[in-house]
Design goal:
Elements: E1 17-18, E2 28-29, E3 37-38, E4 41-42, H1 43-47, E5 49-52, H2 53-58, H3 80-98, E6 102-106, H4 107-110, H5 117-138, E7 141-146, H6 165-184, E8 189-192, E9 198-199, H7 207-227, E10 233-236, E11 246-247, H8 252-261, E12 268-273, H9 274-279, H10 284-293, E13 297-301, H11 320-332, E14 341-343, H12 354-381, H13 384-391, H14 398-404, H15 410-419, H16 430-440
Parallel strand pairs: 1-2, 5-6, 5-14, 6-7, 7-8, 8-10, 10-12, 12-13, 13-14
Antiparallel strand pairs: 3-4, 9-11
Amino acid sequence: MIITGDEEYFEDIGKIAFEGKDSDNPLAFKYYDAEKVIAGKKLKDHFKFAVAYWHSFGGKGTDPFGTATQNFPWDNSKDPTNAAKAKADAAFEFITKMGFEYYCFHDFDLIQEAETLAESERRLQEISAYLKEKQEASGVKVLWGTANCFSHPRYMNGAATNPDFKVLAHAAAQVKVALDTTIALDGENYVFWGGREGYMSLLNTNMKRELDHMGKFLGLARDYARMQGFTGTFFIEPKPMEPSKHQYDFDAATVIGFLREYGLEKDFKLNIEVNHATLAQHTFQHELQVAANANMFGSIDANRGDYQNGWDTDQFPNNLYEVTEAMLVFLEAGGLQGGGINFDAKIRRNSTDLEDLFIAHIGGADIFARALIAADQILSSSSYLKLRKQRYASFDTLQGQDFEHGKLSMRELYEIALSQDKIQPTSGKQEFFENIINQYL
């Protein structure tokens, strides 16, 4: 069911249909058939695609060197409430026409922040009631909510890690209201992205104290949400730097260690972003595997970076090889735990037509669908798993197996090494593995 307000913003575009890979219609899915079953589950259930409210309906094409280039029709009102309702009308029309079932948001994506905390809360309650009506009419749901505790000047030195208690208290109040909003909208999860939780210089930073504060802050937020009946998962989104020089949620391994140190690992999992992974000098698939190893593979921010730029460009995903490798990890891990795949991506500054929003999301969904289909075929039909298992065959029997089971001491390993013949290097067959991927794309 397509839900609109009084005005239809995308009147020349109907519901996006699946037409198959031979279609030349730019406004049709080529690979994403929502009902298609792969590895025992429908594609729509594997992915739970979500539209990012901030990029798709709040982004205007600005960058550090220029003002807005995208003047979309829902941006015309100066009144905060009317503007928020127009944005919601556009968002739900777009989401339902795309055939997606979820969206995600920061608190002040939904409506403009006010001068006071109390008025901001009132505004969020008002727009939440409007959004709830649209959700009930359309079946669209909230994948996750979060709070923007990084844009306002008060957060220039951080939020939960700010050296000024007044700022920390304000951040706590803002997160409390964002949690209330997420709960009111039946949000399935809640994300913490520490946009400025880090430091620019250690000279003026007590790192240990700031990390302790952040651990305590997250625990208090969790406890509050649970007392309100929230049963969803909390996610931490790793990012190494930008805007801070060094952020405390640097990468998946850093976040996992932090969660375990502060006793948060039972309630929190990771929301992995492609572009953040590459900024940390990792691959996307590496970060997914680290999260999966720790049983914290929660959700995905789907995008990509520009490989020639050193910042977070948030482009729509289009690297089939990269995403296929990631989907191998995805399937072997059993999929996401609680979350979905949100397109934390924005159309380019020089993409200024309304249809560009559709084309970008269609391409992103097709890339993930095509990659998952290929990954499933690789796992079920190729020699990939067998070859990888063979690399570790020496640990499956005899002394190698004894080592894995903790039956050998350091002295015994020493004795074994003394008795061994000359070791012959064994090929890792890297090109063979790469060619298997190519064969199924």
